[in-house]
Amino acid sequence: MTPKFPARFACPFCQTWCSKGMSYLPHMQVYVCYACAEKNGLASVSEDEIGNRAQAKWTTDQVESLAAYQASPQYFPFVCDQGDIFEATTVGLFCPKCEQILKWAYAWTLDWSWRSLIEATVDHS
Ligand SMILES: [Zn+2]
Ligand SMILES: [Zn+2]
Fold first, then answer.
1. Is residue 1 in some structural domain?
2. What pTM does this model have?
3. Do 62 and 107 belong together in one domain?
4. Least confident interval from 43-47, 70-74, 114-118
5. 99: CA distance to ligand 2 center in Å?
6. How far apart are CA 93 and CA 33, in angstroms?
7. 18 CA from centroid of ligand 2 (Å)
8. Ligand 2 centroid to residue 48 C-alpha, Å
9. Cystine design at 88: which of 66, 75, 109, 121 (Cβ 3.0–4.6 Å)?
10. Does 55 lie in the same domain as 43?
11. Same domain for 43 and 59?
């Protein structure tokens, strides 16, 4: 299955709206324009290259952390191949629309550490 590619996306490197580029991270709608990809020597990251994957099943606390992460406006949520936002469950990330399940998540999305990342990078003053 080929994930749906958006007509327009915000490139996180040059921070402009682009229409041509590549998908950068698996299961997240992070796209990088070709110019930035070339400049930074970026290639699409495949699932196997990700070292900090935590496999399901997860504990209730991990699921709560992941669900809050998925709902956070500051981060890219995990999405299914159709671009639907996954729901966090103890057996994995689940899409109720197409019944797809993803059985891993980044370790830092499961232990609330993503929240301190926001606090460290977002200046509230
Ligand atoms: Zn760019
Ligand atoms: Zn779906």
1. no
2. 0.81
3. yes
4. 114-118
5. 6
6. 28
7. 25
8. 22
9. 66
10. no
11. no
DSSP class of 7 = S
Distance 74 CA to ligand 1 centre (A): 19
Same domain assignment for residues 113 and 61: yes
- Is there a single domain that holds both residue 19 and residue 80? no
Which ligand has the nearest atom to the CA of 96? Answer: 2
- Looking at the CA of 9, which ligand is closest? 1
Cα of 83 from ligand 1 centre, angstroms: 21
Q: Domain range spanning residue 16?
A: 9-47
Which of the ligands is closest to the CA of residue 84?
A: 2
Quote the CA–CA distance of 20 and 30 in Å, as a whole number: 13
How much distance in Å is there from the Cα of 14 to the middle of ligand 1?
A: 4
Block residue for tokens 């996180």: 12
